[in-house]
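User: Sequence in, structure out. Go.
Assistant: Echoing your sequence, followed by the structure tokens.
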Amino acid sequence: MTVSPAASPSAQLQRRLLLICVLSSVILLFIGMQRIVLQADQLDGFAPIRAEVIDRGVRAAEDGRFLPFVAYRFRIGDEVVRTDQLYSRRLPGSRSAAEAAIEPYAPGASVTAYYNPALPERTFLRVDLAFGPYVFALMGVALLAVGLALSRWQGRYAIHTEPPPRTRAMAALACAMVWQLGGALAWGHYLHLQPAPYPWPVWIVLPLYALGGLAPLAVALHFVRMHRARRRMGSA
């Protein structure tokens, strides 16, 4: 009877990391995509309509925070509708942030409102998507990319065999491609639905995510150079 050799500690660690990456990516992608789809569905059915600003101001909310409001009116047939919701979702903040939000809306100004005949009470002036679900989705994509690289790190070679540099270069390149492609899809969806100006976390997460995707690309280039060096040595 042939007994297969036990896996090395490094191989066992690789398998555990692969399992952690796959399970974590599935959970994060499920949470992120579920909330992204829910947000997109909540904006479905809203169409732009011209409105006139009547008033603007700041209301006190709970815990010392404040809600900005912009009162405006628009006409639907023979009916004049009045409402004061600024954002597509009501989220209290600091007084300075609330005052900055209403600054562009001077009384008497003509603005674009978004109106849904089925939900007239939810008419708003500005789309305000939660950015958190996209962070969950981006983290899930990154872990999925790392899991893909780990699954292909040995290629078709046994766990005790050092694969050629080309195998690991392809694994790292696949990680970089999935990382950047998945990120591009998530960013594209967010930027398509959310008009500028963007919240400050976007300007932190975007460059960090893009820079993180360069790490597997650098690893791939490292093994490509090793592959070329071995080929030159073999032909010498």
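User: And one key feature?
Assistant: The two ends are 44 Å apart (CA to CA).
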